[in-house]
Amino acid sequence: MLCSWRVKLKLLLATVTLAILLSWLYLFVGSLEYGRLLLLPPCLGEQPSRDMEREALASQVRRVEEENQQLRLQLSQVQADGSDGSPQWGASTEDGDPPRGERSNHTACPKQRTVHKCELLHVAIVCAGHNASRDVVTLVKSILFHRKNPLHFHLITDSVAHQILQTLFQSWMVPSVHVSFYNAEDLKHPLPLPPFFPNSPEVSWIPNKHYSGIYGLMKLMLTKALPSNLSKVIVLDTDITFATDIAELWAIFGKFSDKQVIGLVENQSDWYLGNLWKNHKPWPALGRGFNTGVILLLLDRLRRLGWEQMWRLTAERELMSMLSTSLADQDIFNAVIKQDPALVYRLPCFWNVQLSDHTRSEQCYTEVSDLKVIHWNSPKKLRVKNKHVEFFRNLYLTFLEYDGNLLRRELFGCASLPSPPSDQLQQALEELDEDDPCYDFRRQHLTEHRVHLFFLQYEFPALTDPTDVTLVAQLSMDRLQMLEAICKHWAGPISLALYMSDAEAQQFLRYAQASEVLSARRNVAYHIVYKEGQFYPINLLRNVALANTQTPYVFLTDIDFLPMYGLYDYLRNSIQQLELLHRKAALIVPAFETLHYRLTFPKSKAELLSMLDMGSLYTFRYHVWPKGHAPTDYAKWRTATVPYRVAWQPDFEPYVVVRQDCPKYDQRFVGFGWNKVSHIMELDAQEYELLVLPNAFMIHMPHAPSFDISKFRLSAGYRGCLQTLREEFHQDLSRKYGAAALKYLTAERSL
Q1: Which residues fall within 8 angstroms of residue 544, CB to CB, at 6 or more apart?
Q2: Partner of 435 at 20 to 30 A CA spacing, among 369, 567, 644, 731?
């Protein structure tokens, strides 16, 4: 607001000055005309003098008018850019750094450099692994929250981050956001190379002590990795949080001189001064050096300068004495700048407020409005010591837990980047009839949920066992307490889809990291499906968990069941003995239940039968839904010693072990009802054998009823829509499998 009032004051003064000059000119010209009538003609030598005076005065008037117009333009820009009442600060001096000794960013009203609202801004990020992928999401949220421009993210990733982030952005479907991926492996080395191979343009030959490993060197390769027609890009570390519109940073490209190619903020620690400890020897740097958490790169100029050869020759020379980098790419960037300082444009320090221990970051701001970019560049991250760390932490947590669905907002006035999936979804939504009594069910079926795969560290199996089996289930926040118990009962791989809000996902993260049982497991894959809509998308969740398994077989269960101890090994042996590789079969694990929250879990089939006879266990849902599991034939199971075959019956919904490429669950069924029944029906339509395992069992643990089952019981409209969906499913099944599927409709009608 201070800048706005200054501009207004200047405009007022200019207007008054212009009025005075115009009045003076009018009187002056008038007096000359009047003098010509009363006096003799002037001397010939005086005429040029008067003409010059009039011309000088007219020139002054034109100059004041131009200044007036310029001030009007500036005022309109301030009103447009700062409509929220907050000042839009830029660089306080032309070279980007505030004068020494001046801590305030308010030393002068900055010259406004605007970016057209539809200009595409390019952002590059290097990301590898599960943890960095989570950090990228928070960074992107902070950018999207403030942005007013279309964005193109260029992500240099390993295979893990690629899978996670590609799925996330595809399901997020943010308008006017495009994402390109680049394989980090291609930037390490094209072929197997010796440990030190300086003639390679890649980075694998550079010894690096930094915890980021080889990925911390990837930013050196952006001129090669990014498209050759990309002229400039903002490069960001994953531990960055934006507190302003990134277009303000993009505008600074316009301040670069002809020789400047890299925009950086000065390092705010004493690292490059070499006085942190005895015999501390950092890489060469200009003064305090520069931090590479935020970089502005003019790629076209760097390519013309021969950037790849420039940094490589510098690195080779310094490594002869330094032996390795300590701060990854930052050391090499600084060594190059030390050699040629004209390359760097000094960004104001509020564009990279570095929250590591013992930094001068507090000199970058005096008010909250000064903050632009916060950089959590300490290994301690949120636990770093800083005078205002609580404020910074709350700002970060705001974006960490912010509902990403709210960022799916259009940029009005700009042509959106083409997005076929989004266009198809919009068309399908427009075709829905809002007067349809089942509109909400159909709308939920079309909802595109954001999906964050492998939310926590997961170790993919190096070698696949041909009989290996993954437990597949889904859950929401109210079933979180079941995880530890299931992990104690099942030693094999697990794939879970968790239906949560952004805030709940962070609660789960803290819970899992604090749990000794969960944190010790690396073969449990957690896939977050973010909440949206009014129904629980149970079959979507099952499909997400199923699609991201890594084993040939899957055990399809629910989170509120505890498998018997040793079931993992028993299933693998059964798969081998029954030769499932050569037959299409579904192995049924009989289901039981207890009404007691505290249960001494049976260690064998004999113990379970004893508890069944004593009434402490029951066959599952025998008292409310016997049709669901009666075809398992529990009477036969009591004495069975070998697997036996059972026939499909209406409403049969057992828990089964099948091949990983089994049919998907039908996602039209949301909330409660017919979600498993429809799946078993399709297995039977594809002629799967249904085989009951004689020495396997699972027990359902009691819990409060879900919200969806309450709606089913209380709402006749809910039950009516479920019946409509069932009929539509039968029709689709008949079209898909022909006459063989007619038996299902006949069986349904006979009930």
Answers
A1: 451, 453, 474, 497, 527, 529
A2: 731
